[in-house]
């Protein structure tokens, strides 16, 4: 199953920080991580069509 932007929830967590939650579409299990990688947030959350590599990187950050 492909990772999509709908699998993520973004919450502003202060200047230059976002709490990102990834929810598995298969199991419903969730992983959360606070990130300071604003370029990645811009390339996913703030993009009309996020690239697959950016979505996969964000999922990797949440799960590890």
Outline:
This protein has 64 residues and is of the alpha+beta class.
Topology:
Layout: E1 8-12, E2 18-23, E3 30-35, H1 38-44, H2 52-63
Antiparallel strand pairs: 1-2, 2-3
Helix pairs in contact: 1-2
Describe the structure.
The protein has helices at residues 38-44, 52-63, and strands spanning 8-12, 18-23, 30-35. The chain has one domain (5-63). With 64 residues, the protein is α+β, with helices and mostly antiparallel strands. It contains two helices and three strands. It is globular and about 35 Å long.
Order of helices and strands: EEEHH
Overall mean pLDDT: 96
Strand order of the largest sheet: 1-2-3
The structural class is alpha+beta
- Tally the beta strands: 3
- Span from first to last CA? 19 Å
Residue share in helix: 25-40%
Cα-atom radius of gyration: 11 Å
Number of domains: 1
Biggest pleated sheet: 3 strands, antiparallel
Shape: globular
Number of helices: 2
| Strand residue content | 25-35%
Uncertain regions spanning at least 5 consecutive residues: none
């Amino acid at each position: 199953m492909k990772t999509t932007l709908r699998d993520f929830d973004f919450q502003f967590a202060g200047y230059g920080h976002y709490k990102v939650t990834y929810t598995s579409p298969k199991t419903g299990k969730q992983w959360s991580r606070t990130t300071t990688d604003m370029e990645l947030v811009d390339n996913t959350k703030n993009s009309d069509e996020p690239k697959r590599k950016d979505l996969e990187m964000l999922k990797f950050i949440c799960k590890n």
